[in-house]
Design goal:
The chain is an alpha+beta fold. It has 3 domains: about 30-190, no CATH class; about 205-400, no CATH class; about 420-700, no CATH class. The strands form 5 sheets. The chain has a 5-stranded antiparallel beta sheet. A 5-stranded antiparallel beta sheet has the order 9-10-11-15-14. The radius of gyration is 36 Å and the shape is elongated. Residues about 1-30, about 150-160 and about 705-720 have low confidence and may be disordered.
């Protein structure tokens, strides 16, 4: 029947609110700053390289070379935490020193600091540094992903895709590392290497080299394949109206309807346009000159004005012409070609082939803006200069391109890579839910229940724990609070789909059954403790019990540890990272005892204690278990069946409960219950339940049941 969870829920919410307020007050503040200064960088980049002052517009250091004194920066170095402070598994962003050259190639990715539990003392930092070493010589123009260690590790590799080798037992962490590296590097590339901001969602369009139709200049102009800006003298004069530049152009005033400038723009990479403008040989020569991912446009003008001045230097950027996409400016530089006027074109006064930097991020099929500036001078000695502009919005025909399928985000790749495991675990959770929802058939036979429970716990330990790395930890709770306090959200949880599935199921189980679902069935270390206890009993090791008062006192220990860890996470995160080692989960489950001797000795010692005092760690030390108890306050069902004879006088279930979760009164202590279902089986078994045995005995003797005796077929939970 339903319990009264409202008061408990309110108490829980008040406690959580107070704790969250403390954390928010402590953690809220400026975002994490970098750890290095110019001197630190200088020690890492030795001559002939030199480190310049940190840039003001973006937190990066320019790197110059004595071998190319006139070339400007040959590379940029930056700390990832300044540009991509993505929370890790523990909730704190890692910091990496990333360096890229002027072509967008990675020179190096070095570790500055990190807080990932598996790399702090589990696997150590060696595997992480080996993973980072793979970025050297990779390019930002490539699609860089992390391999799955749970399936085909090289699925989809090839072409423009690079797949880095992941790290076993740290898949979620290295996916976050990859996202951190790419996000920070792209930010610098867009600011300093001419990489455009993304024009839209999805991958950039690619030219269909197999599409060619012979078209005349007039046909291309009519279809929009050649863009045109037509500006008359009068229209330009209107732009200067009300300024110092108004009325200074006598010819414009005399002939307002005459053409001032006709500006033409055409995208040359597409064969249909490029071959019509440059000819077959000219287009082939252009494509040989362009690097992969580089785009070129033909820009020409006719009329009394030209888009370049007489002093224009070939190979440079036209001063009067600006180019942008989606509001992001991109450099257009002359390729120093001398194209002949296309057949059918009007008389031209200037024509250039202009190109953007390689892998600029420009989407050639999306709208582009070419902006032409006009400057007028009034006066001769100290002229007053007035500038106005006109723009041409250009978009090449969509039929000339195709768009590749959008690559899946890293977090979704993680789910895709682990689809088999997620399916197996989901099936196991459904089976467990069915047993907990209707436990009578499974539990009434002690042998059947024992077989099922041991089988499920073996699955939890071997498959869920050691294989799928599904051991939940207090680190996930402290990490979530720290991420939320920093305003970073909980996206990092998406990179660990197995843990997220278990978290979701555990939260649901709080409401239905209480805390025991996870602790009793889904905790790999808890399963390992149970098998250790069974081994101890088989070896005739006596099971010890604490006196009741001492047991109650020790029971509070885990709550003290939980409070201490939460407080440390707020005021001393470094100590909190060490404090979470009170959990032996990383040693026993995550790395399978492959750690240094002190950690292994601690984990083994807890297992030995668990063999002497049943589930010692779970009941007296586990901070995650304490958090589960608090979550269990949300339970809405008293789902374990009881009758009035339970506790008065019958004490069978209480004496057989190894968790001390049944009071002398017969009431269930749900905050101590691990949902082993033994008491449910006793309740329904006419060979173990004393009240039922008494009724059966009276029936066999032909005596009527005593007055007010319960009905054997009746229980307080239908189907329980």
């Amino acid at each position: 029947m339903p319990c009264a969870p409202v008061a408990a829920a309110r108490s829980l919410c008040r406690g959580l609110a107070a704790g969250a307020a403390l954390l928010l007050a402590t953690l809220a503040g400026p975002a994490s700053a970098g750890d290095l200064d110019k001197a630190d960088l200088a020690r890492r980049f030795q001559p002939p390289l030199h480190v310049g002052d940190k840039l003001r517009d973006i937190p990066a250091w320019p790197i110059t070379s004595e071998l190319e004194p006139e070339a400007g920066p040959v590379a940029y170095a930056f700390e990832s935490i300044d540009l991509a402070p993505i929370p890790g598994f523990e909730g704190t962003p890692m910091n990496l020193l990333v360096s890229i050259d002027r072509k967008g190639n990675f020179m190096d990715v070095a570790l500055i600091r990190q807080h990932e539990p598996v790399f702090l003392s589990g696997l150590g930092e060696g595997p992480l540094r080996d993973f980072l070493a793979q970025y050297a010589n990779k390019s930002l123009k490539q699609e860089i992903t992390v391999s799955s260690l749970y399936g085909n590790t090289r699925s989809g590799a090839g072409g423009n895709r690079v797949v880095l080798d992941g790290v076993s037992k740290a898949t979620a962490s290295v996916r976050i590392v990859n996202q951190t590296v790419l996000t920070s590097a792209l930010a610098v590339a867009r600011a300093r290497l001419g990489f455009a901001a993304p024009a839209g969602k999805g991958p950039l369009a690619e030219v269909r080299s197999d599409v060619f139709e012979k078209r005349s200049f007039a046909e291309l102009l009519a279809s929009g394949a050649i863009g045109r800006l037509h500006l008359t003298n009068g229209e330009l004069e209107k732009r200067f109206a009300g300024s110092e530049g108004a009325g200074v152009d006598a010819e414009a005033l005399a002939r307002p309807d005459d053409t001032c400038i006709d500006l033409y723009v055409a995208y040359l990479n597409a064969p249909t346009i490029g071959r019509a403008i440059l000819g077959d040989a000219g287009h082939a020569d252009l494509m040989r000159r362009l690097e992969p991912g580089q785009h070129a446009w033909w820009v020409a003008s006719a009329g009394r004005d030209a888009f370049i001045d007489d002093g224009f230097t070939r190979g440079t950027v036209p001063a009067r012409l600006a180019f942008s996409q989606g509001g992001a400016p991109v450099e257009l530089r002359d390729l120093d070609l001398s194209p002949r006027p296309p057949e059918g074109a009007p008389p031209l006064n200037a024509a250039l082939v202009l190109r953007v930097p390689p892998m600029s991020g420009v989407d050639p099929a999306s709208p582009l803006r070419f902006e032409l500036s006009f400057t007028r001078a009034k006066g001769s000695m100290l002229p007053v200069l007035t500038q106005r502009s006109a723009h041409l919005d250009y978009q090449a025909p969509e039929a000339l391109f195709h768009r590749p399928a959008a690559p899946l985000p890293d977090w979704l790749l993680a789910w895709q890579d682990r689809a088999t495991e997620l399916g197996v675990i989901t099936a196991a959770l459904l089976l467990l839910s069915l047993v907990l929802a209707r436990p009578r058939w499974m539990s009434v036979s002690a042998g059947r229940l024992k077989l099922f429970r041991l089988g499920f716990l073996a699955f939890t330990l071997a498959y869920l724990g050691w294989h799928a790395q599904g051991q939940l930890s207090i680190v996930q709770i402290t990490g979530a609070v720290k991420s939320l306090a920093a305003g970073a959200g909980l996206k990092s949880f998406l990179y660990d789909p197995v843990s997220l599935l278990l978290i979701g199921f555990t939260l649901l189980s709080f409401v239905l059954w209480g805390r025991g679902t996870f602790c009793g069935w889904l905790c790999p270390f808890g399963a390992l403790q149970e098998f250790t206890a069974l081994l101890a009993r088989a070896l005739r090791v006596p099971e010890l019990k604490f006196p009741a008062r001492l047991g109650t006192l020790l029971d509070r220990g885990r709550f003290v540890i939980l409070a201490a860890l939460v407080a440390l996470a707020a005021v001393a995160p470094g100590w909190a990272e060490k404090g979470v080692e009170v959990e032996p989960f990383k040693t026993a489950i995550t790395v399978g005892f492959d750690r240094s001797a002190p950690y292994v000795a601690y984990a083994v010692g807890l297992l030995i204690l668990g063999g002497l005092y049943y589930k010692f760690f779970c009941r007296y030390l586990c901070p995650l278990g304490a958090a589960m108890v608090l979550g269990g306050k949300l339970r809405i069902l008293d789902w374990l069946p009881r009758r009035k004879e339970c506790g008065q006088p019958c004490q069978t279930c209480r004496h057989r409960c190894t968790y001390d979760a049944i009071e002398k009164s017969g009431a269930i202590r749900y905050d101590r219950c691990f949902q082993c279902l033994d008491c449910v089986g006793i309740y329904h078994d006419d060979k173990r339940c004393a009240p039922i045995m008494l009724v059966r005995k009276r029936e066999r003797q032909g005596r009527a049941p005593a007055q007010n005796t319960f009905s054997i077929t009746d229980s307080n939970q239908d189907g329980a």
